[in-house]
Amino acid sequence: MAQARDLALIDRHDVELAALAAAGGRREFGELVRRHGTPVRALLRRMGAQPALADDIAQDAFIQAFQRCGEFRGDGTFAAWIKRIAARLYIKRCVKEARYVDEVTDDEAVHQPHPGDIMDLDEALKTLSEPERLCVSLCHGAGMAHPEIASALNLPLGTVKSHVKRGLDKLRARLQPEPAQNQSAQTLGRAQNVG
Amino acid sequence: MSADEFDPFVERLFSRTPPMADAALFTAGVEARLQKGSRFRSLAIVLAGVVGGVVAVRETVNVNVNLGEASEGVVAGQALGQGMQSASIGIQTAVDSALSGLGLNQLELGSVGGMQIFWLAAASVIAVATISVVRLSQEV
Question: Which of A23, A25, A119, B88 could disulfide-pair with B114, CB 3.0 to 4.6 Å?
Answer without folding.
Answer: B88
